[in-house]
Design brief:
Radius of gyration: 25 Å
Largest sheet: 3 strands, antiparallel
CATH architecture of the largest domain: Orthogonal Bundle
Helix content: 40-55%
Number of strands: 7
CATH superfamily of the largest domain: Citrate Synthase, domain 1
CATH topology of the largest domain: Citrate Synthase, domain 1
Order of helices and strands: EEEEEEEHHHHHHHHHHHHHHHHH
CATH class of the largest domain: Mainly Alpha
Strand content: 5-15%
Bound molecules: s-citryldethia Coenzyme A
């Protein structure tokens, strides 16, 4: 690439014009012109390195804290159009999958790129179902936590601990091994979650029942008491399965980025999933559903909503469950979740906090502060109301996000591993610290 002689494309009549798929850049510090190729409406950041003032300069970088405008990969898993409120897994709309699919079928789609045939689905369900048990030693590990330990802290630790039970998981470029760890992770997440919940209640663990569906078995391990055979309520079982579908993946969000970044060091998938779970725990990410419930409880009544909204607009607090880095329109998942909520409330009774939530949404959708910032309800705004009505404590809400997102994390991890363009993640920095200075003895400081 010759920076002074821009690449041109000779047209039929002999005239020349700039090639359409390049960016013409002039560095006004030197007057040099550069042609930078454009692919997928994007430039390769390393193409900027040729832009220098002096030949021995490092060359130009791009600066993008929090990756507001930086693609870290090419991916085929999930497509989001934030302005149009579109979400698709492998080309299938979230609306159709929520209506017609199941979580395990959707997880297969996300991981393999295609909907399974009948025999593929049966084999997939068989293997996930037969990997729901955990090693008895993991129970001892979980018993070591305080009764009031946050279940997300228990989950992060327990998932990492699984890496010590399956050392062969380090063989990450062995396809059969990756599939076995995938069965284990997807199969065991509900068991670890349920055991963490039962630990907090001081109740004995209820073992998996392989006769039940993925969501049904999860409800069994959570709520089974003295009955010989737990029978999940079909409405709640279906509602949970739909919620799992809605949470399965969401392209390059914070926790997916953690999965890819940590996985890029070629660590095993259990350790990478523990890192992703830790990222999800944050109140700005998957921990938001817990914060929404705490916020609604703090507001307490409809009459307090205007004063709370006033505090939000004064920048004193956030309207948790609102806003999104990508969606500048209504999160399509929130719309579906509101419908799921109606079904759950019919069984469990209407959640009294729903009126407060609906009033917050009504005001936010009209008030210029929120409209100007394009702050709409996101996936976390209504899920907590459903979970609370189903009997979950607020601390379990982010755990209910982590369980289904495991399939998305594994799909992102695997795509990163098999992408020839990817290697260990190691961002650059702009150094703004001290220049070289001599060591100061203790008497010379201060
Ligand atoms: C998830 O990335 C994903 O895909 C995540 C997720 C997934 O499926 O993986 O969709 C799941 O994490 C959903 C988001 C859950 N988090 C919350 O609900 C927490 C509350 N929301 C915010 O913290 C915020 O909206 C984020 C973190 C979600 C997005 O933050 P951005 O894109 O960095 O936006 P920003 O913080 O720069 O905000 C832009 C402006 C700011 O105001 P100004 O400085 O311009 O005056 O909007 C304001 C913010 O103060 N703002 C809010 C707000 N969110 C943003 N003001 C009040 N309440 C809010 N919730």
């Amino acid at each position: 690439m010759n920076p002074t002689k821009p690449e041109t494309q000779v047209e039929a009549e002999g005239t020349t014009r700039m090639s359409r798929d390049t960016l013409s850049v002039t560095d006004n510090r030197t007057g040099k012109a550069y042609e930078i190729p454009i692919q997928h409406d994007t430039i390769h950041a390393t193409d900027l390195r040729q832009i220098k003032v002096n030949a021995d300069d490092f060359g130009m970088m791009s600066y993008d804290p929090a990756f507001n405008n930086t693609a870290l990969c090419q991916s085929k898993i999930t497509y989001i159009d934030g302005d149009k409120g579109i979400l698709r897994y492998r080309g299938y709309s979230i609306e159709e999958l929520a209506e017609k699919s199941t979580y395990l079928e959707t997880a297969y789609l996300i991981l393999n790129g295609e909907l399974p045939t009948k025999s593929q689905l049966e084999e997939w369900i068989y293997h996930v179902t037969h990997h729901t048990f955990i090693h008895e030693s993991v129970k001892k590990f979980l018993d070591g936590f305080h009764y009031d330990a946050h279940p997300m802290g228990m989950m992060i630790s327990a998932i990492a601990a699984l890496s010590t039970f399956y050392p062969e998981a380090k063989d990450i470029f062995n396809k059969e091994s990756r599939l076995r760890q995938t069965y284990r992770l997807i199969g065991k997440m509900p068991t670890l979650a349920a055991f963490s919940y039962r630990h907090s209640l001081g109740m004995p663990f209820a073992y998996p029942d392989n006769d039940l569906s993925y969501a049904g078995n999860f409800l069994n391990m959570l709520f089974k008491t003295s009955e010989l055979k737990y029978r999940p309520n079909p409405t709640l079982e279906h509602a949970l399965d739909v919620l799992f579908i809605l949470h399965a993946d969401h392209e390059q969000n914070c926790s997916a980025n953690a999965m890819r970044c940590v996985g890029s060091s070629h660590v095993d998938p259990f350790s990478a999933t523990a890192a992703a779970t830790a990222a999800l725990y944050g109140p700005l990410h998957g921990g938001a559903n817990e914060e929404v419930l705490r916020m609604l409880l703090e507001i307490g009544s409809l009459s307090n909503v205007p004063a709370f909204i006033k505090r939000v607009k004064a920048g004193e607090t956030k309207l948790m469950g609102f806003g999104h880095r990508i969606y500048k329109n209504y999160d399509p998942r929130a719309r579906i979740i509101k419908r799921v909520a109606d079904g759950v409330f019919e069984i469990m009774g209407r959640n009294p906090l729903l009126n407060i939530a609906l009033e917050c949404e009504r005001i936010a959708l009209e008030d210029d502060y929120f409209v100007k910032r394009k702050l709409y309800p996101n996936v976390d705004f209504y899920t907590g109301l459903i979970y609370q009505s189903m009997g979950f404590p607020v601390t379990m809400f982010p755990v209910l996000f982590a369980i289904p997102r495991t399939s998305g994390w594994i799909a992102q991890w695997q795509e990163m591993l098999l992408d020839p363009e990817q290697k260990i993640a190691r961002p650059r920095q702009i150094y703004m610290g001290s220049e070289l200075r001599p060591y100061a003895s203790i008497g010379q400081r201060g």
